[in-house]
């Protein structure tokens, strides 16, 4: 009873700005970050007549642009983080609404249209996600910074769960209603359009959010279970530039397994294992649902084990799940990998983020955030581009082993570089 009262008290203390911000994040999770788009986009491209190599190219171009923009956007001072979020969400909305219109264009324009609209979406994602952490810190007081990031991850995961289920079911329902098979692209086109439309209210709401100066609470009110804040600048054997380069090198490799899952898991299930769209949606959704309690438990896990250890353990866990996926071509093994890797994504992401932010002074944190997002983008772009051709030339198992080896290498580099600065 005491625990329930404590949780109730904590939720009552959530600032209004955070509630509004979490609604925006829920819309993103439901539509593009784990939801409808994540389940259906690659399947839609396959049904337009393309193969895995074009799926990889399509994703890699957008992700490369995302990566190239992330670091410069992290260094921008002319615009506030709030303005950058609005610009970003506007681009995401434009790209999401534009992409499904490809079906109504002459076939000669299909490839170019898909690449351009997907690139616009990734430009928006770069503007948006580079500045989420700085914006959260600008609308909350110090004792809420890390908790807000944890709530953000949980919200994205829960919304992604619902969006994944909806995305998995809609093509079958629309196919029956339109008397079309699920091998036709039309039952996938309309859910993608719906996802874009649903993002419009979030864009309007984001314009109403403002960064305000909030007084810090008395020390007695501090929540002892918060995720530890980035520590004061440590005495490091690296300059800020060296820290940025090390983070990029480590992150590009560490993120490989996640990039394989995000880009090719649904392609593998659909094209390689002939799994139904419904089941693909369920597997994606379950990974998000399990991620909710994991995201909410981040403060406790970090307090117990520390960010450094969690970064290493979570990445090794993803490698351990990827290897069986390469060796056993069965949907249950692939499903276990998808669920396991997807469910710990928030823990892996937040532990690395907070650890990396603790390496530099406060005024350099947006730069570090941009470096982290850039490295994720480059890692995903590399995997997406190379992965499509690996599948075509050598099959899916080669891609999965490739991802596992690179992620393991990134984990070893992380240990070598940062073991003395915990």
Report on this structure:
With 422 residues, the chain is mostly helical. It has a single domain, classed as MFS general substrate transporter like domains (Growth Hormone, Chain: A). Helix content is 77%, strand content 0%. It has 19 helices and no strands. The chain has helices spanning 2-12, 16-31, 36-47, 52-75, 81-98, 110-130, 132-139, 145-178, 186-198, 200-206, 240-254, 256-272, 277-296, 298-305, 307-327, 331-343, 345-357, 365-394, 396-418. Helix 3 (36-47) runs antiparallel to helix 9 (186-198) and helix 8 (145-178) runs antiparallel to helix 9 (186-198). The longest helix has 34 residues, at 145-178. The model is unreliable at 1-9 and 219-233 (pLDDT under 50).
CATH fold category name: Growth Hormone, Chain: A
Beta strands, count: 0
Give the N-terminus to C-terminus distance in angstroms: 37 Å
Order of helices and strands: HHHHHHHHHHHHHHHHHHH
Q: Structural class of the helices, strands and pairings?
A: mainly alpha
Total number of domains: 1
What is the averaged pLDDT score?
A: 83
What's the level 1 CATH class? Answer: Mainly Alpha
Could you tell me the strand content as a percent range?
under 5%
| Biggest sheet layout | none
CATH architectural grouping = Up-down Bundle
